[in-house]
Amino acid sequence: MTILIPYASLEASAWKNGGGSTTEIAISPPLAGLDTFDWRISLATIASSGPFSVFAGIDRTLALVDGPGVTLDIDGDSRFVLGDDDPVLEFAGEAQVIATVGERPTTDFNVMTRRARCSHQLGKRSLSGTSGFATRADVTILFLAEGDSLEVSGDDERIGMVRYDAVLFEGESIWTLEAGQATIFIVDIYFHED
């Protein structure tokens, strides 16, 4: 199964602490809440400094999408600057994380998986012209992080994407990607065997 998730169809919701907003791209199971999801993919805009919400039992990965970045203090003993030099951070959802933003907001791609049920890997790829793309995980999400457009085509399907659109793939399949210039994030989600 392949599903296009147009960014234009999504709605942002404000954080409880007022420090930013989140736009949910995909969640499983469908209609799950923040306490019941197996995995969740979202875009987060951090507009002011403050603490992250705690998600016990969740593994998280953040990737910078837009803006100058953010400084993250984790459990009071380590500091990480999510920016152009280090654009990806993995951390445990139960960690105490304090975000410090500068003069401009930052937008981050956020992957969360429930440790007891599944795991994830996030990859980043630059595209120019035509290239191949193979899915191998239980679920794969392709996200257009930079670039005006991307075309994803298979044997009997052609999907047009614009910036911040995503495509969800289930199972193994082979595709062709075509873009003038683009950056994509690829999230592979693997469910643990029961």
Tell me what you see in this structure.
With 194 residues, the protein is mostly beta strands. The protein has strands at residues 2-5, 12-14, 20-28, 39-46, 50-51, 58-66, 70-74, 78-82, 88-92, 97-100, 106-114, 118-135, 139-146, 149-153, 158-162, 166-170, 173-191. A hairpin with a 5-residue loop joins strand 2 and strand 3. The chain starts with a strand and ends with a strand. The mean pLDDT is 94.
Summarize, please.
The chain is mainly β and 194 residues long. The chain contains no helices and 17 strands.
| Distance from first to last alpha carbon | 23 Å
- By secondary-structure content and strand pairing, the structural class works out as mainly beta
* Oligomeric form: single chain
Radius of gyration: 16 Å
- Unreliable stretches covering 5 or more consecutive residues: none
Mean pLDDT, all residues: 94
What is the string of SSEs from the N terminus onward?
EEEEEEEEEEEEEEEEE
SS field, number of helical segments: 0
Shape: globular
Largest sheet: 7 strands, antiparallel
Q: Classify the beta-strand content into a percent band.
A: over 45%
Number of distinct beta strands:
17
Fraction of residues in H or I helices: under 10%
Write the layout of secondary structure elements.
Layout: E1 2-5, E2 12-14, E3 20-28, E4 39-46, E5 50-51, E6 58-66, E7 70-74, E8 78-82, E9 88-92, E10 97-100, E11 106-114, E12 118-135, E13 139-146, E14 149-153, E15 158-162, E16 166-170, E17 173-191
Antiparallel strand pairs: 1-16, 2-3, 3-4, 4-11, 5-10, 6-9, 6-11, 7-8, 7-10, 12-17, 13-16, 13-17, 14-15, 14-17
